[in-house]
Amino acid sequence: MNKKRGLLFVLFTALVSGFSIFINRFGVSGINSSVFTFSKNIIVALFLFTGIVLVKDFGRLKILSFKQWSKLVLIGLVGGSIPFLLFFKGLQLTSGAAGSFIHKTMFVYVAVLAMLFLKERLDKRIVIPAVLLLAGNALLLKFVWQGFGVGELLILVATLFWAVENVISKHALKELEPKVVGFGRMFFGSLFILVYLSFTKQIGLVLSLNLSQVYWILLTSAFLFLYVFTWYNGLRDVKVTTATSVLLLGSPITTLLSYLFLGTALSLSQAMGLLLLLTGVVSMILFTEFGTKYDFLSINRAKV
After folding, report:
1. Could you write out the DSSP letters of every residue in 274-302?
2. Cα torsion at 183, 153, 113, 24 (round to 10°)?
3. How far apart are CA 205 and CA 185, in angstroms?
4. Residue 302: pLDDT above 50?
């Protein structure tokens, strides 16, 4: 039952991600990306903290051990701060298609890390959905390999950071509530970005935001809150490899929104990419979460 609940949460996260990416295109325009990220993170951290207080769970924070607090700080560092700074800098140096494609390979690194550090048993057949997911994203994003430069390297490093953070978060969720892990990521991530803004003398930009920018920050923060809340609730109950694979459904949602509201043409190759992505996600779920129940290879051997 928990597994099905976790999948529903992660599927909702993918839906939120698709809408969020679409809306962020408008919100981030004209705003310093670091300031934009800091503002959203701190607002979501306050939302989560308020939620913890309202349900009278504040006692959970007070009894956390030094090791547990250290884990939350680490999650904030490797997931809520450094990769954002690297990712947005990388996007300035490469194409959006290249950046998005590299970011979408995160599930591959997560699978390897989960096998090494979480002892997740992975079905060998996940190679099939992995290839489908990578090919589907390449077609959907119209990605064409044009070399590997500094921008691509920064985005790859950011993606590796996020992969590590997801594995650490999955381990932390064994003993901590999802809202506590989410709060740690957003709060400590905000503090680290604040330190960065201070050292780079950009902190004044936070105070110079106009009403229009504040509006977009609040709107996108709402989506980020939904993302964080559903993501950690889902990640608690399903394998981290499954969760990060399901997140790839966000790309088709963003593409369809662009098609419906911006009139962006959907090519035949992109439609094929959508089909490959859907097939890849469904296959990944079956092989990682229901491998024994849906053992197609064994069924075929039995018939022979």
Report:
1. HHHHHHHHHHHHHHHHSTTTT-HHHHHHH
2. 40
3. 23
4. no
Q: Give 303's contacts (C-beta < 8 A, 6+ positions apart).
A: none
Structural contact between residues 71 and 180, judged by C-beta atoms closer than 8 angstroms: no
Q: What's the pLDDT band for 178 if we cut at 50, 70, 90? A: very high
Please give the C-alpha separations between residue 221 and each of 10, 43, 46, 73, 216, in angstroms, as whole numbers: 18, 7, 11, 21, 8
Tens of pLDDT, residue by residue over 51-85, are: 888 876 777 788 899 999 999 999 999 999 999 99
Distance of CA 229 to the CA centre of its chain: 12
Identify which of 90, 48, 76, 88 has the alpha carbon closest to the alpha carbon of residue 195: 76
Q: How far is CA 267 from CA 104, 141, 249, 259, 271, in A?
A: 20, 11, 18, 10, 6
Across the range 33-48, mean pLDDT stands at 93
Structure tokens given for 2: 């928990």
